[in-house]
Amino acid sequence: MTIKHTILIAEDHALFRAGLRALLSAETDIEIVAEAENGKDIVRLACALNPTLVLMDLSMPGSNGLEAISEIKKRMPDVKILVVTMHKTDEYIQVALRNGATGYILKEASHDELKMAIRTVLGGKLYLSPEVSERLLPGYLSAAPPAEKTVVTWDTLTLREKQVLKLVAEGYGNKHIADYLCISIKTVEKHRSSLMSKLNVRNASMLTAYAISKGIVSL
Question: Are both 47 and 124 inside the same structural domain?
Fold first, then answer.
């Protein structure tokens, strides 16, 4: 008897969802059991249906894909999640993997690559698109795990640190942040240094990744 792998699709574009359905319809051991257009619905459906795999877009209305990945893995750690997205920057890739994604493939990939990615993830292995792997994998896998330290959350940051973090994540430089908050550049630098120390990150990209993962800035 063939074991069925059940799949949820999280994608807000109807045409792309239809393409995924058509591509996977010929696979005898795969069944698409539900679809969702936003992060909140896919979390609800995942909890209700306990799928084998979720195909997850990142840019969706309401709760985004990064938040949905984190919530699904928190509630159902055994569910596999393959990100299918157009985003190829380090911030998105790092946050998706840290939140629990089992694979990351770009929407520009071929049908054959997507099938291979799905099979790889279903087999319990990590899959990264070649372009994603070239950008991220060497540094990501060789990085030493962070030392244990007191957990810092959004609520424990000071009001000024929250303001600076949000502006950094939105791409503004120190001078713009200083002018906007009516403080000196040196004070901005001090807050940035404090944020990196508290959050155990090393640069602005990692601050941005943190802000995205927490929904402080939108996709």
Answer: yes
